[in-house]
């Protein structure tokens, strides 16, 4: 049987919002924790509550090794500051695992550190520029928190944040751009998925897969089809265009021939028992958030700089991860804050207000004693109507 091509050419099959339908703000990510999560390993949740009064749900991290702590410590600190507007009226905290005693050089392997802590690693290799800038050096993080149901063997180091975004001597991988990327990765850890992978994204953005870096090689591989996945003797429409649609829109084919496209594929197109269920469990808001820290910038992964793989559907204009082309103006969005307030509800009136969007003034935050107290600018007020 042929793959259902009709879904590729048809109108977007949006599934609409369920939980949070009435909400004004914008997000896409995991569901709030409930008791079924403890029994179902496919239910990825926000981080669990570790303290009841006041309620705290910390992301507890450690570094894989001392090199990672040294290279990424300051970037993580600044990225945590970047999330301060979301933490101030919620139960979310982002902090070193208590087992480290506050020392970043006590690594994840130390027996005092909890095995469910987030393992942060610098994936770059000293002196290997080709690898560091190439497609095999990963920047990626696990989404949310995975409970291990009682009676099942635990999975140590199951929460990971691999980072390749900072190279001290490279003009494209600066500390400032690394902070933006680290804020984004922490967003995954908190439980937020890519805004541009929402099932309804085609109503808001135009995605041009052919403009992605690596497209030509991917198409060549799909035409050769050495894995024998593409050819279907009953499919009369098995031509080049059909194969393009497959590798650009369906994870099964993208995994084989075009892995770069995977982070652009709509969430409702992931198939396979467990994976499908995990994606289906995600929720999204009524409105689409072009300013989220969880959206890729229009120009990310572009084959040619002036040809953006994603633009706004309405006027073909660009958008940016964290709302700005300038690294020093990047911030989380009002939608990011609202979703954190929902997933990390500390029960206060301020948190309730934050769930529908609040009035955001400056926020002060101190990260350990290393970073000075800073005031975050209230960027939110200037954004387009929510
Ligand atoms: Zn991401």
Automatic annotation (TrEMBL):
<keyword id="KW-0645">Protease</keyword>
<feature type="domain" description="Peptidase M12A">
    <location>
        <begin position="182"/>
        <end position="212"/>
    </location>
</feature>
<protein>
    <recommendedName>
        <fullName>Metalloendopeptidase</fullName>
        <ecNumber>3.4.24.-</ecNumber>
    </recommendedName>
</protein>
<dbReference type="InterPro" id="IPR001506">
    <property type="entry name" value="Peptidase_M12A"/>
</dbReference>
<keyword id="KW-0862">Zinc</keyword>
<keyword id="KW-0482">Metalloprotease</keyword>
<keyword id="KW-0479">Metal-binding</keyword>
<dbReference type="InterPro" id="IPR024079">
    <property type="entry name" value="MetalloPept_cat_dom_sf"/>
</dbReference>
<dbReference type="Pfam" id="PF01400">
    <property type="entry name" value="Astacin"/>
</dbReference>
<keyword id="KW-0378">Hydrolase</keyword>
């Amino acid at each position: 049987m042929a793959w259902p091509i009709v879904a590729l050419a048809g109108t977007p099959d949006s599934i609409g919002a369920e939980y949070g339908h009435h909400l004004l703000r914008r997000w896409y990510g995991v569901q709030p924790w409930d008791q079924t999560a403890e029994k179902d390993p496919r239910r990825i949740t926000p981080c669990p509550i570790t303290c009841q009064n006041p309620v705290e749900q910390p992301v507890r991290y450690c570094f894989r090794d001392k090199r990672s702590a040294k290279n990424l410590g300051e970037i993580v600190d600044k990225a945590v500051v970047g999330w301060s507007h979301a933490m101030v009226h919620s139960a979310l905290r982002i902090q070193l695992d208590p087992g480290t005693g506050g020392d970043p050089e006590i690594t994840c392997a130390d027996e005092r550190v909890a095995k469910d802590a987030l393992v942060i690693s610098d994936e770059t290799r000293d002196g290997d520029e080709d690898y560091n800038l190439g497609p095999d050096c990963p920047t990626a993080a696990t989404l949310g928190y995975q409970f291990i149901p009682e009676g099942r063997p635990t999975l140590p180091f199951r929460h990971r944040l691999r980072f390749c975004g900072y190279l001290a001597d490279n003009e494209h991988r600066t500390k400032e751009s690394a902070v933006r990327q680290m804020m984004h990765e922490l967003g995954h850890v908190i439980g937020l998925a890519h805004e541009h992978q929402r099932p309804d994204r085609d109503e808001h953005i135009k995605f041009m897969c052919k403009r992605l870096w690596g497209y030509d090689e991917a198409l060549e591989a799909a035409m050769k089809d050495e894995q024998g996945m593409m050819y279907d003797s009953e499919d009369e429409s098995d031509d080049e265009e059909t194969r393009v649609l497959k590798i650009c829109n369906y994870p099964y084919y993208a995994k084989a021939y075009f892995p770069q496209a995977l982070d652009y594929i709509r969430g409702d197109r992931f198939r396979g028992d467990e994976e499908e269920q995990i994606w289906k469990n995600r929720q999204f808001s009524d409105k689409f958030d072009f300013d989220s820290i969880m959206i890729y910038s229009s120009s990310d992964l572009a084959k040619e700089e002036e040809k953006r793989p994603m633009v706004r559907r309405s006027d073909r204009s660009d958008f940016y991860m964290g709302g700005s082309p300038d690294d020093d103006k990047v911030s989380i969005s009002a939608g990011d804050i609202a979703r954190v307030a929902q997933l990390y509800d500390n029960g206060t009136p301020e948190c309730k207000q934050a769930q529908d969007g609040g009035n955001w003034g400056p926020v002060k935050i101190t990260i350990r004693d290393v970073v000075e107290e800073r005031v975050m600018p209230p960027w939110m007020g200037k954004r387009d109507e929510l």
